Amino acid sequence: MIQQRPDILNYSDFRPYLKDMYLFCKTKNKHFSQRYISDKVQAASAGWFSDIVSGRITLKTVYIPRLVKIMDLSASEKDHFKLLVDCNQASTIEEKNMYFEALLSARTTGEMMVNREQFVFYTTWYYPAIRELLFYYDFKDDYQKLARLLNPPIRPSEAKKAVSVLRNLGFISEDSRGFLKPKDLILKKDTTFRSIHWANFQRAALTLSSEAIDRFSKEERDISSVIVCLSEKSMEKAKEELGKVRKKLLALADADSQRDRVYQCNIQLFPLTGKQIRKEEVL
Fold this sequence. Notes:
Blueprint lengths: L13 H15 L5 H8 L6 H7 L9 H7 L4 H14 L4 H14 L4 E4 L11 H8 L9 H7 L6 H14 L2 E3 L5 E3 L3 E4 L6 H20 L16 H24 L28
Parallel strand pairs: 1-4
Antiparallel strand pairs: 2-3
Helix pairs in contact: 5-6, 6-11, 7-9, 8-9
């Protein structure tokens, strides 16, 4: 049973939130049951709530006001819940991205800036990887298994140190079940600060990308390249478009209720030639 009321701002999927709210409400009302919910929202099936939480059926708009009333959500919780539902059930990436942006704007704890004192986070590639892994992997103290889940695998001692670093930085903490989970949805690097850690992290990321060509089959990866000729203005536009791609990937991950693997996406755009002087510039 969950004794403390779940904070909706800590969820990126409405289904686990509903499950936890259900368990919390049961501690307050012994008559609170899945059948009770189905009757109150006027659902056709007694197993309606279970089907919603498991993802077997979608949560239709007509049921949302009835459901939030049963859960006794506040006005802000109702608005955030509706955004979660819209984001998780959106049919296109564009829609998911739109709702994801709205969720980030509404959250005060959904996004955290990694400042210069926390740049040890970028010391090695597997610190961020383990943090992402803990979003879906229920971990307590099995460091051997945690180390083996990474690809390439690391040593148990390295996994233990990584968990210790993440805890000390405040990036993970125990949830109501005693599992270590990330505290914030997104971590952003402080762009005003340059660090040798970040440079080393990027080098390690590029090495992993190179090794992935042989480590994974083409069905498990997507590695491609394109060479183009651009003006300085088009280069700035290209950087904007790449930024949109990163945001869309975050929205896709946030809306995915079936996450079961950590991926890394490297995007590089850099010159292969020196800057040329056009003829009209010298006339």
